[in-house]
## 1
Amino acid sequence: MNPLLELSDVGIEFPTPKGPFCALQNVNLKIKKGEFISLIGHSGCGKSTVLNIVAGLYQATQGGVVLSGKEVNEPGPERAVVFQNHSLLPWLTAYQNVELAVKRVFKGQKSKAEMREWIEHNLELVHMSHAMHKRPDEISGGMKQRVGIARALSMEPQVLLMDEPFGALDALTRAHLQDSLMDIQKDLNNTVIMITHDVDEAVLLSDRIVMMTNGPAATIGEIMDVELERPRNRIQLADDPQYNRYRQQVLSFLYEKQRKPDTDAPAKKAADSDDSNADKVDKKTGEVA
Amino acid sequence: MTTALSNIAWISPFVSIAKGEDVSGNIQTIIKTIGLPLAGLLVFLMIWQAAASNINTSLGQFPGPGDVVTQTKGLLTEHFTEREKADAFYERQEKRNAARVKQDPTYVPKIRDYTGKPTYIDQIGTSLVTVLSGFILASLIAIPFGIVIGLSANLYSAFNPVIQIFKPVSPLAWLPIVTMVVSALYVSDDPMVPKSFVTSMITVMLCCLWPTVINTAVGVASIPKDLVNVSQVLRLSYMEHVRKIVLPSSIPMVFTGLRLSLGIAWMVLIAAEMLAQNPGLGKFVWDEFQNGSSDSLGRIMVAVITIGLIGFLLDRVMLMIQRKVSWDKSAATR
């Protein structure tokens, strides 16, 4: 079966005053339809850069990305992004935020009533029906992220890209949203690429975990298949030897094989400037994995 | 009604006292919100009075607060008598016209305008119309221009020197040039508005353009990257991007610019009117100065206070509009 999304030999260089800085190289990845992929790695390793290249927000300087047989070279709604900081328009209500996307994507395809129904359906999916006429500053961080997910889902993307979607949330809210996401995933079976710092999150949600090496010139270190049966339950899994082996494997990759020596601090700085989103969360929560 | 009243900051403590809530606390709030400003004003009036009685000019003693009150009353009376005269003038005309039409049904009655001199209130009106015309004209140019240069870092770098050079130019420097250009280009036998009005308006526009341009451009340039990404993922067109993302996002900064611009517009206007002889407050001050009667200084002081009050009110009105229009209520508190 042909992969839905194919990254072949993707690399990117950013121009700096000291010459080009190679943030990423030789990234090869094939993703099947309906697969849930997590990208994990230390901050500054270029995870967000990979996602931004797939989204079309960055242009790869080497290789390329092919989605359903077409090369990706600009952003588009078929690759909807859930941003880390929700990115809702603060002057619009939850409903209007989703509406903006729906109107743009389904212009001429859905009638007014159908659009309305579709918007409400997507807000229902993320359990936001009760607050759909509230503005972002009137709802909590977790609710904002829910609306962000509803907005991305409403575009009916071929690939859903999630850039540390739960990174800025507290642990309990995060667990809630992970469960919601698994529920939604069960019904919709979307193809998802998610960036995360959180080993538990990666193992719990993914079909495959892609582990990235440290930058500069970061690339894919290991790929691990997660063959836990769905539906997955976080409480039962906590005791599951298989689950813990997966966790252990990711942890050992991050802390033994890719342990960051303190000496490469300058290199880290350069990489961070290209990956500032990921870095922000790190400083706030003091969390690496 | 009570809820509407209690929304106004200095009324709310009275409302809650009337309801019998927390009397001593509310009295403290009243002292703070009304008592202190009142005390400040009182001290100022005392200093003014003391200083005024020690300054003797060739036009008599410097006017104190009392003289200003007298002159204000005088100016108002003048206004009302002038209005009565005007009314009487039109009434006489109508009667005469009616009589003529009766005699000769083919006669088409003509109404001649009253040609009395403009009163103080008329002059305030002229000033307001002039300043608002100049300000609106400036906004219509400055906001779109600010958006365009804010969206492109290259255009911004290109225009920034021009903006920075013209921003500090005084209206007094512009005025002679504007006067000459208006005289050359605005030629008509039956002008819709007087030349002095056009000159003042354009001078106001030239001077108050810049804060709106700069603030709009900065507001547009500092739209969060995330929101720009959203726009890109949705593939919004340039115009949609401006309408749906850029404009709402930069509204708070645009209003900051507009409020600064309106403040400058009002200051510039007085100078422009003095020199262009546009029949507004500026001309009033100039004429009183040239007139040099014993009332003149008092009348000029009335104008000074009027100018201050109107400037303050204009800013409040802009603030009210900002609160109505902007989604970011926190930006509109001062």
## 2
Amino acid sequence: MAQKDIEVVGRDRERLVSALQLAAVGDASSLRIVYKLTSAKLFGICLRICGNRQAAEDILQDVYVKVWRRAGSFDSQRASPISWLAMIAHNAAVDWRRAQHHHGTLDDDAVLSIADEAPLADAVAEQDEDRRRLLSCLDGLDESQSSVIRRAFLDGMTYQQLSDESGTPLGTIKSWIRRGLQKLKECLNDG
Amino acid sequence: MVDPSPPTPDRDTLAAELALGLLEGTDRVEALRLCLSDPAFAAAVETWSLRLSPLLHAIPPVQPPEHIWKAVEARTGIGLSRDVSNIHSLRLWRGGALVCGAIAASLALFIAVRPSDLNAPAPMAVSQLVGAQGPAIMAIAFDARQGVLRLSTTSLPTGDKSPELWVIPEDGVPRSLGIIGTEGQELTVDPAHAKFLKSGVTLAITMEDTASAPHKAPSSQPVLTGKITVI
């Protein structure tokens, strides 16, 4: 990647950090900046996990209301701003799914157009050290472990849903995930 | 297929399972309840969420419809006025639970210079000042147009001395920006000093005698220091 692009990414990140800090002291225009920089990304996450456009729109609203209320708890020493925001969106979308008792597959046309993440992952990985480390640690796991962890997290699926979908016994799925998570933690802590 | 019994989950694995969204029904309810009763567990859930969050960066962005922002404005009340009082929301500095539990609030003070045009590519300056002893939380936003610093509440020491804010530019000479209260307030910056609030300069707070302020020079070690960076 060109040096210039890396600088742009770095600057956006710092802008986002400062906007979150300003939002924390009640600066309304800063929330607007956070929204402009991140809403498409967070909407993508909500859509992917909910699989329902209307729900994703409602959740996205909730996410930014939460960001406004809780910007003060963002700690730039601990997390990148986009990871922190993505976490909020992910949790809100998973909360919604668990409240729906959805056991089916994703059901909205909008979601069908979402591409496989692999090619994009490579492009993004260049920009993000945390992501690069995570992907490299996931690569170190058994294929069965890493794929089921990714699937759970990226699609908001429960143990039971993963088991039903793959026809793999529940206990096996749990073993894969728990052993995988243990190894993942060791790998991330070593790095 | 043989179904081996999975390893019994320890607390940290349970935290990961909640963070991943794997749990449902009573398992999920139990884990959420644990979040409320056990701050260490809540912190572990958040640690796992942040660990895995970079995976989400691969999901392609989708532009949300216009009306979402309007709704956010309406629900937060920020659409009513450009200059919603900062003071009422300062309590937010105490932070809140995002996954399920409290996040340790960062001990930081920062100053930010707002861009005069919000759509401009942001000449913002931000600094995090870290306390030398014990947790202190303060946020300062600098409105360059009005020359006003807006200060949040703080847990700086109380007593017969007051916190005095200093800017220390390239020449290394501290200039007093004035005494700040321990409650949220506004502080008008001397225009002669406002020009120092830029990239690379150090900000500091020392505890000083109230009556004789502002002072020519600090008399004690700073309780908070940090540097401004312009973005």
